[in-house]
Amino acid sequence: MKTVFAILCTMLLITGPVNAQSQTKSDECDCLKHDLCVKLEQLLSFKDKPDFSINGFETGGPYHKWLLEVQSLCDARSRDKRSSGNHPLPASLQTAPDDLELLAREYQNKSGKSDTKHIRTMLPKLKKTIGYVDYLNAKQKPDKMTMRTWSDSSGTFSVSARFVSMASDTVKLEKAGGVAIQVPINKLSEKDQTYLTELRKNGLLGRAAK
After folding, report:
1. 105-118 as b/e, with b when 16 or more CB fall inside 10 Å?
2. What distance in Å separates the CA atoms of residue 117 and residue 206, rounded to the nearest whole number?
3. Location of each CATH 2.30.30.700 domain in the chain
4. How far is residue 71 CA from its own chain's centroid?
5. The domain 141-201: what is its CATH number?
6. pTM beyond 0.90, yes or no
7. Distance of alpha carbon 60 from its chain centroid, rounded?
8. Fewer beta carbons below 10 Å: N end or C end of the chain?
9. Residues 119 and 107: beta-carbon distance below 8 Å
């Protein structure tokens, strides 16, 4: 009997960290995808502007900061690989920051001409890798989801409010009249926690509530 109990304890000790590690990897993927979607959206907004065609990413220019921020995503991905040995991200996502920079260079070099074959091939692949369509769809949701009823896990408390942002362990809600509240995620009902999980999967990652 003691042997069985010891085995069960060992299994719990092993599976606990594994599950936590899997969740951490999922969060890292979601965060990187979101950051890349933001940067791709910005690139697509300025790629055809005359000043970009002329100046590109030259130091001190209006688009140099964008390039530095994308390169910082590349550097962060490389540090993860060096520190852990086994990279926490899928292979296709590992190369996505570099692919985004290459795509930006292609837009810079075409100088107002039609998109190159490389651009037409790379852009759809990158969009699929980082979930760009889901990101755009999620951006349209906040106005539509506006107010909803949130309940606690016991079912004794509920409030009508709209989602504002989500931190690691709290969610920020806004009640009618603009009154903001912060609620621990683990105190919410299972339905509300599932709702937040879906928001995260769709790329709607609000900044941590202040």
Report:
1. ebbbebeeeeeeee
2. 36
3. 141-201
4. 17
5. 2.30.30.700
6. no
7. 28
8. N
9. yes
